[in-house]
Amino acid sequence: MTYETPQSVTRFRNIGFGVAAVGLILLAVGSFLFVGEGLTATDRFFESYLFGFFFAMLLPIGSLGWLMVQYLTGGTWALAARRLLEAGALTLPVMALLSIPVVLAAFNVDGGHYLFEWANPAVITPGSPEFDRIIAHKVPWLSPLWFTGRMVIYFAIWCGLAILLRRFSLDLERTGDPQYKLRARPWAGVGIALFVITVTFAAFDWGMSLDPHWFSTIYGAVYIVCAGLVTMAFTIIVISQLVHTPLFEEFLSAKQWHDMGKLMFAFVVLWTYTNFGQYVIIWAGDIVEFTPWFIHRGENGWEWVMTFLVAFNFAFPFFVLLSRQNKRNLRVLSAIAALLIVVQFVNTVWYILPEFHESVLQITLGDIGAAVGLFGLVVGVYMINLSRAPVLATKDPVLVEMVHAGGH
Amino acid sequence: MATLTRQVPFYGLMAEFSTPEALIAATKAAREAGYRKMDAYSPFPIEEVIDEIDHGRSTGIPPLVLTAGLIGATTGFVLQYIGAFVDYPINVGGRPLNWEGWPAFVPITFELMILLAAFTAAISMVVLNGLPMPYHPVFNAPRFDRASQDLFFLCIEAVDPLFDRTETERFLRTLAPNQVSEVES
Fold this sequence. Notes:
The complex is a heterodimer. Chain A is an all-alpha fold. Chain B is of the alpha+beta class. Chain B has two domains: 99 residues, Alpha-Beta Plaits, CATH 3.30.70; 68 residues, no CATH class. Classes of the chains: A mainly alpha, B alpha+beta. The interface between A and B is medium-sized, with 12 and 20 residues.
């Protein structure tokens, strides 16, 4: 397959890796700068790293989810997005390696403060002064060994699906035989069920288990929605940057990004719906096991973060994306998409960091560095993947609908 | 108005095409030639044709739906506020009896917004389309039943200020249609 990589892809690859280098240096520096309150540099590092990992995983996970969804729904927006989603999903093998520090934190390799409270033997040993019956009860699930086992299972399933779907896609590109697309479909169907279950439990493991007393059944769904939102936003941004490359120039029109804009709008509403649903149920129930999570996130400055989220993950993008003209204007659409990625970063801050910091002012340089650095790394690998195949699956039969009238 | 609504013995001229591309090109050409009172008929929605026919003209539905949604949301909230706080304050598990109790009202507020907006969208679509309409002249055009199967039609209506029985027919014939026919009113 001879194929010329668009220049902007190479440029974004370099930007991604540049940002990654800066971010990871900040992570290292930040870990040492914020030593204190009984926390060593490695403790700080693990806190920041877990937060960064939680944020950076949104794009790979969301890409895999959308990749399977687009096989099941079909449509020309799906075709326009497919190669970009494949590039995103294929960052998962790299993320599998980058999940190792999270596993190490669960084993508390540095011997310092326990990142995951449930990993602390003193908490689950009867008779110890720190003994906690509720956490002890959860030990069969929340043990470092089984945590590692689950991590292996998640990444095996995700990487397997990503690689398999990419192979079908490249076989289609090579041979032009549409049966490869038909063969991808059942895998997408089965995969989406596995995806929802595994991502739900992954979100429980990485985020929710930081407060092992608290639980919310919708937590995993919220993570999936955030991943879907970040990915659709990122896809729109990449399209806005590649719209003048030969293949997109020839086949893409406002119809495709209009549809993506509608999906992004739907996910803005879905984010609001799931988060408010979680809030109103806990608020109305007013039960002592459930409320502390929200009480903590509503004081010491975190309430301002929450207000920001309501304004910029809901109100502002909602009213902008309501209009048809705005969704068809790629400039406006990609600006909103960029805003939503930043807002999703803030959303991750609000979800994870109150577990580590009493006040919003205690957010460290390392936290920011880890999130930005790991996200930059994902972007870099994404761009390498994107440069390995044409940006548009040119042998897909749906391509005809793209240039002909009436397709969606 | 009186000068615009000329009395004409027929509804318009109908051109028949075999492909959506031909219809798109014809609609574009007709718009560029200055025709405004026209409509296209096809077995499936064609966005390009819709853009040409409407040309930025709103259907009028979006502002109606927005208004209905806002009315629905306001009604839903005020209804509950008056009921639960003003007229008959009721203590539900110690939840606040003032504006701080607002989260409880959001589901109903949301539902009523959706309800009114959705009804308005559906009903205003029907009404603004002039439905139900038991008779419409376009069905007098030959083979018009195939507009819902495999043929594409463009009708320039006789009420268009630029309409001229011979000139318009000559114009339509330049667009390479299968046939051009007069539509009885």
